[in-house]
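*** Query protein ***
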Amino acid sequence: MRAVLMAGGSGTRLRPLTCDLPKPMVPVLNRPIAEHIINLLRRHGIDEVIATLHYLPDMMRDYFQDGSDFGIQMTYAVEEDQPLGTAGCVKNIAELLDDTFLVISGDSITDFDLQAAIAFHKSHHSKATLVLTRVPNPLEFGVVITDENYRIRRFLEKPSSSEIFSDTVNTGTYILEPEVLDYLPANQEADFSKDLFPLLLEKGEPMFGYIAEGYWCDVGHLDAYREAQYDALYRKVKLEVLYEERMPGVWVGQNTYIDPTARVEAPAMLGNNCRIGPRVHIDGGTVIGDNVTVGADANLKRPIIWNGAIVGEEAHLRACVIARGTRVDRRAHVLEGSVVGPLSSIGEEAQVSPGVRVWPSKKVEPGAILNINLIWGHAAHRNLFGQRGVSGLANIDISPEFAVKLGAAYGSTLKPGAQVTVSRDQRTISRMVSRSLIAGLMSVGVNILNLEATAIPVARSLVPSLAIGGGIHVRVHPDRPDHILIEFFDNKGINISKAREKKIEGAYFKEDFRRAQIHEIGNVAYANQLIDTYGISFERHLNVEAIRHSSSKVVIDYVYAVSGAVLPQILAKFGCDAVVLNASLNQTGPTNADREALLSQLGHVVEAVKATFGVQVYANGEQLILVDEAGSPIRGEMLTALMTELMMTQHPRGTIVVPVHASSAVEQIARRHDGRVVRTKANPTALMEACQKSGSVILGGSGEMGFIFPQMHPGFDAMFCIAKIIELLTIQERSLGQIRADLPRISHKTYTVRCPWSAKGALMRRLVETHPVECLELVDGVKIFDYHHDGWVLILPDAGEPLVHIFANSTDRGWVDEALREYRIRVQEFVDQEQETEEVFVESSLY
């Protein structure tokens, strides 16, 4: 027997899910509805299927092809010009239907016994048999009344509440004899329920209703779609499941990793190649498609998540539908009954309110509260560059295809034939990204000097010595181990300017790439003796004799990073007594918690071996934490002050460059030595540029960013910093503990407040307007001085996240605590007021 699968529907009531997908291809338990229907037909011995198509026909043809992969023979009939209706499209293929045939809807979920219905049809010598079922609420369906012999006597298509005369409804599945199609005119629109069946009833043709037992759901609207998913998951309908049942009621696909700390409650389904992060909570009733990533601490309560979606850390999804390729960022909330269409993006801490629909390829900005459907407009381009280069989730945001395009964009801003360096840390993910960048650069005619895995200070120092166009360094982000950071250097080794970043962004978003001809494709060369070259510069800027004659013993923890392959070789040349920890390379790399444990271990080793000091090097050789002779860590503002004291003692009247939020201890130390302090914006590029502006700068940076020695090279360099500390402690005959005890006593505290992007500018304006001009400094953020307490408060918007950082600094600890509390309340109240105003505006715009 042949079956006709009615698969032409566009599913307007399922929008936005069907904007780019025909309704029969909408997934239930990670398979298209039409595939479940085909499986049902095959199980009942029907292996020839003709699918009638109209809306986006290629999607179904490409998926099922000839049907052989699904155990059937599949052919297609496409309504090219206009839809012919449920009966008209079947009339259109009448020449293919020369025997009893079955018609079935492609947008319903059912497990009816079709063979029993076919046997009923034949035993009653019926010309047309309607498969019926009983439902509690028949308003949405065609109602049918049969006599005691099941012959149809009356029916009404989708009655009003006053017209209901039965709870037995038409399911859209029919068994027909081919001659009934003779009643229909050719090439005209016709419907089974409105046209053909009333005519057969009028002509007295034998037409019967078979009341089927089993499950049936017409997936005609979003509520029904969710209901069908949940019913299928709770096994109320017999559907074939793709995945292994790992535990009762939990189906998991191949190559899916679930963190041991995650909790999955039954029933739930997780597709192939998924990644479920630490402490994720998945409630019963959740369906997750293939290739889905769920970040740490996310909370999923019965969402339906389609293939390729990304759910960020601490996101909350509540009985919603997240369509293909959609991204829900960190701490975002998508609430009950809402639907997010394919390829959309929900920003950090944004909220999609209950019942709201987001159309495909839309962007909800970070911190926004969406109370109305988002239909019109286009996705906004985000900036590629953040505070320090380009960063994003590894192999999600920063993927090979993204990196190829970014490399081509960067290369297109350089002259044809230019040469740049490309370097990376030791991780496999960084190798993948750097190779993709190289491919993009080559495609636009740029030559590459591949430095491979090396510490970033080595890469920076090499760029100006080679007289080349610039450089790229790829590494795992020092603060976010699941992110990749791509940094771009200019020909001096400094991070590129904002103007240069804008040029690269323009080329990227416009896809304005220069395409090289075959003979112009860039070449790749490999650098030799990198460490020797770096070591020569290293040695030139140190008092090597002081180090050689030093009695210092240093314990260095390299935290399994590539700097462990560089610094030991250099220090060995100077005869340093160095105890090395964790110098072997590690592909996975430690988490922040691991690093803290290693720091504690370092303190114990320093004490045990009676070392002069210890140091932990991280961020691919840029940053460090010191440990004094007693095993106590020195980091953050104390480290900034200590390095200032060491360098100023050796170079009085010198200049120190620090970020705007650094402690005022720096100024107090500078006054002791007739020195000068320059404060810059709180970003690495600003610090690098300021260090190069004057020959009197002896040190730049901070404990949290790292330290710059401008005479050595323009970037942060923890490795050179270690050698410099050995030198200065030897010359000055002091210990870290002694220097630490002599530092100014400054109270410096910070607090972070969540603040939507849209409120940041208004907050800064309010602060400027409500304080006297003579008390303000606007280097970066808004700094407010209180001269009575020798203190200041800095409100600094975060460049990369919807946050505001509040710093308070003074010699008076009580004032710091009170100021921090006061401005925390001020900022929070302003943010709350702005969000209320935004909600009122959105609601009022409806009218």
